[in-house]
Write a structure and sequence with these properties.
This protein has two domains: about 1-210, no CATH class; about 210-250 and about 285-420, no CATH class. A hairpin with a 4-residue loop joins β3 and β4. It has a seven-stranded antiparallel beta sheet with strand order 2-6-7-1-5-4-3. It is of the alpha+beta class. Helices cover about 45% and strands about 20% of the residues. The chain has helices at about 20-55, 60-75, 75-85, 95-115, 175, 245-270, 280-310, 325, 335-340, 340-355, 405-420, and strands spanning about 10-20, 130-135, 150-155, 160, 165-170, 185-190, 200-205, 220-225, 230-235, 240, 315-320, 360, 390-395, 400-405. α2 packs across α3. The longest helix has about 35 residues, at about 280-310. In the N-terminal section; belongs to the transposase 2 family. In the C-terminal section; belongs to the transposase 35 family.
Length: about 425
Amino acid sequence: MTKTMAQLSYHYGVKVRIFPATEQKRLIKRNSDASRFIYNEMNGMNRELFMLRQVKIPITMVQQRIQTLEQRLKSPSTGISNSHGWLNDHDLDSLMKANAIKNYRSAWNLFRKVHRSGTPVFHKKRTEQKYQTSCLYASKLNNPSMANGSVRLLDQQHIQLPKLGTLRFKGMPTKLLNRQDDVRIGTTTISMDATGRYYVSMQLASERPFVNKLSNNTAVSIGIDLNIDNFLTDSDGNIVANPHYYRAIKGKLASAQRKLSRRALRAKKEHRPLRDAKNYQKQREIVAIIQLKVANQRKNFLHLVSTTLIKNHDLVVAEELRSKNMLRNHALAMNIADVGWRTLLGMLSYKADMYGKRFITVNPRNTTQTCHDCGFVMGAGSTNKLTLADREWTCPHCGTYHIRDCNAAKNILAKGLVSL
């Protein structure tokens, strides 16, 4: 019996750029709109059902409506399609409908597990487009692979997708192209970003690892302190400078956004919808390209840093960060958002699993205030706590000179080793 995607040992994700024709772009938009409509329709029915259940008086009309909504939510695929006949159009992917329903139910499950995520909200109509489909394999197929499913690679430059047909793509890693026979494709996401570029993201699974796990012969451990002045300082005293990608284009982006606002105001004064205002749409794309460039630069930088740390060390220890609380400091919010600390910690976590290394986080309490040599904590006795302006200090107990960030990184590493 063929294993399911979840039963396979190793999982991987890949995102490639595609180049659809005009008709394929129309189909992507239709499926994206239908996916959003189904999600919002389920959300609307659930909200209506909640309000109707608050009515304690047994009104027949209310009871009948509750039964109707409950029946539709039990089988939303047919219930919504019967009420909205256009969802049965031949252009729409049936697997898109199934994935929209699954995503809505997953949002509720996430709310039940993590209440901070909030209840599902309505998806707004935006410039971006996105929907999901699934790769299906024939039941009698002995060896499912990347070349024989409903989503499949035709060659090294073309991919076959349900309803869309053949599309040219680029950006697939060579290591995946060379081992198509033992890799399966799962959920597939087709998307368009704000700049008008189209992508396909695929979930992959295999019985063999996608990367070779590195040996742990050196037993090298390192602690890292994340800060704003220098992006990262490790326990060996090495410093990674903060590239400040957003600051570099802040003026250019602000100028482009002001121009966009003026064009939006002019279009509204002339009673023209923004989607039909060509000058506005042209400027909107310019703003999106600037923002995308910054996001790509930051992501590339974080990938390089995280991969280097994981490959060269068997244990990486970092401090636990609560970015949501830190962003409440308006004086530092822009700098904190620009460095991408949460993204870095996420990369370190999954890359450690991928390469067979260890990554842990520790409570950062007093890591900057404690002397690594003698353990004296600033603020004790007659001493004052260090402020953000104190980048260097001398321990009043043992007289050891410290560089603040390097000392903090050593304390983080020490806490990590104790917790093992």
